[in-house]
Amino acid sequence: MLLYRILASLDAFYLAEKSNAKSRSQATNIKPQGSGVGFGVGPRTRSIQANPLTTTKPSKRDLQLLSFFRGIAWILSTSTTEEGLLDLMRLSLLDVAIEELLRNDSITDLSERMELSAAFLTCLESIGKNPNLAEFYTQERDEMTSSDGLERIIRGDGQRITKHRNQGGSVTGTTKSPPLLDLMDNLGRQAEAFSKTLGNAHGPLNNGDRNVINSVNLSRSILAVRQLLHTTANQCGMTNSRALATPASSEEVYRGICSQLAYDELPSSFSNGNFHYARQAMTVNSVNQRRTITLAKELSTMATSLPPGIFVRNIANRPDCIKALIAGPEGTPYFGGLFEFDIFATPNYPAEPPRVHFLTTSQSRVRFNPNLYA
Description:
By secondary structure, the chain is α+β, with helices and mostly antiparallel strands. It has 13 helices and eleven strands. The strands form four sheets. Strands 7-8-9-10-11 form a five-stranded mixed sheet.
């Protein structure tokens, strides 16, 4: 009953938010940024001007979500054998709230919303500790277009309306959303990249800095919760339904491989002499704390956000020394070409832009267009 009441309140919160956004849109005749069909994406609170090292004060919305996640975590941690928990969770918009944070946020965003992130991960941990709930995060979900809310659904006069696939005028099935565990794996890849990049960063970091501690602890928590979810799922025999699916096309295979190879560190055998800005990099003696954290967060985001055919590597122990390779996309004059760039984040980064040298010029003899030259 406690879980029902808090999930019903969560649904009412999302329904009211969607209704208010729709009213504002109709009043101004402008579609609100981030809105779409159903509840797939919620409004973001991060300002474009946000300092990447500042933990922002929680917004009213974040405080409301924080209270929901804390309440759900407490209930689930004391109700491991109760029946009906899974059914309530699947009827509610809890998966939407979780998906919003898993899909919309990066290590940068989550560390700026540290209180909400901690409550959210604690909630996921409580779900992961209950073997009866493994299906909630391992299985594909029916993509939803709208919901009447848990309270009306339980009363019998409401429903979750799902999106259907249509072909030739007939319904061929229900459109599926990825399992929550897939989204958690993506965030985990960012956490791995961040931990690796920061851990190998050139020079010592100030471990007394709260922002450093928050970011490091956040990454550790993400990896621990991801491992817990996988362990519980495996023990229950609940495998990831999408991970076992056969890719539909060679393009999907290619995209999957590109995603796995998008970002990493160069091997330690890489010679710095093959990096255009090697001499400038050698003159950097002091560690700029802000620059190191910013680079670690931005590089970790690239682990899951780069389009297929773009690959980024940084020199081992030097997140400020970066190489990028872009495969010319099909349908463009660059198709079939591999274009290499050396990038150096100066000591004043991000206050000043990085330096970029384009290498694919046959020693400055080839100019592909007015913007592609050494």
